[in-house]
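The material for today's practical consists of a large collection of protein records. There is nothing in a record beyond a sequence line and a structure line. As an example, a complete record with its sequence and its structure tokens follows:
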Amino acid sequence: MAETTTPQRATNRGPGRLLIAVYIVFAIAATSRAGLQIATKFDEAPVAYVLSAVAALIYIVAAVGLARAGHAGRRVALACCAVELVGVLGVGVLSIADRELFPDETVWSGFGSGYGYVPLVLPVLGLFWLWRTRRDPA
């Protein structure tokens, strides 16, 4: 008797569309911010500005992964959301513990306080959505 499983639910349907839209908005915001900071005052806080660029890249790749909705897209989105969560928690703690380490804010500074803490909540929602739309045994 062959075991059957239900197919994965698409990550780009229903609430997933809103999640992808938020990732796209944050990708644009973080890319714009990092690009301007790197172009105009990179020498003032290179670590902070490079971290903002990394966050922007993660947001872009996560949005693409969620939008693709296939097996590879899910894996990419899962990796991005996990790295994003570790990044926002790590940078959040470091930016509060040692303010001199980040002379200017990153997207993830203070757990994303400059962006209404959305950078802290976004990877949690992304991971939840990936879990919610996973393949369930029949």
